[in-house]
Specification:
about 210 residues, 4-stranded antiparallel beta sheet, two-stranded antiparallel ribbon, 8 strands
Length: about 210
């Protein structure tokens, strides 16, 4: 995640152009919520801004297929796939001495394989509680201050949930989420692990509008 959102070398710009411009249009309703980060200066003199769009949405057919392969490789069956959020990076600067813009998106998805529930959930929760403040500070050094509403920090949501074995403090496993959206996530996770649920049905490639 850090490499995508902070590196701005020529190779980074070319990689994002190859993935498609951040201004490519999408379809569907506006995202349920979004967070717009501050502008960061990049090593090449450009500027980078991060935006997070929040679902959840049903995974595209490609994401479902990827999840099915992941679960199978671990000896598990796929129960569902949740597309939780999209992280968008927009870069402006100069390339080959000319003004340039580039960008990219990274989908945050969770594969609900038929993992058994863990028996050390309390330890995982306590570990996260003890690391929460430090985690917010480290995240803030990369993306800007951890989001808050009315002076209350947004919840840190574990993408791979703790109940099924998610790592409590892994950098790539926690994203800030508004409380209202976090309640939706928590309500839908059990459905994602249930057999033959809606999270096993493919959704559109572009489920929301900017």
């Amino acid at each position: 995640m850090t490499a995508i959102l902070r590196a701005a070398s020529a190779a980074f710009v070319l990689a994002l152009v190859g993935c498609g411009s951040a201004t490519v249009g999408t379809v569907g309703k506006p995202a349920m919520a979004k967070w717009v980060g501050p502008v960061f200066g990049t090593p090449d003199g450009g500027q980078l801004r991060t935006t997070i769009y929040y679902g959840p949405w049903q995974c595209s057919a490609a994401f479902l297929s990827r999840c099915e392969s992941k679960c199978a490789a671990q000896g598990h069956a796929l129960m569902g796939c949740m597309w939780l959020a999209d992280i968008k990076a927009d870069w402006q600067g100069r390339y080959l001495f000319m003004p340039a813009e580039a960008g990219g998106r990274m989908a945050i998805t969770h594969c609900c394989c038929d993992y058994p529930k863990v028996d050390d959930l309390k330890w995982r929760r306590d570990t996260w509680d003890n690391a929460r403040k430090r985690f917010r500070q480290e995240w803030g050094s990369e993306f800007g201050a951890w989001p808050s509403t009315g002076g209350t920090f947004w919840t840190g949501h574990h993408i791979f949930d703790l109940a099924h074995g998610g790592a409590p403090t892994a950098t790539g496993n926690v994203i800030p989420v508004p409380d209202a959206i976090h309640k939706v996530f928590n309500a839908e996770y059990p459905a994602c692990y249930a057999p033959d649920g809606k999270w096993l049905t493919p959704g559109p490639e572009h489920p929301y509008a900017d």
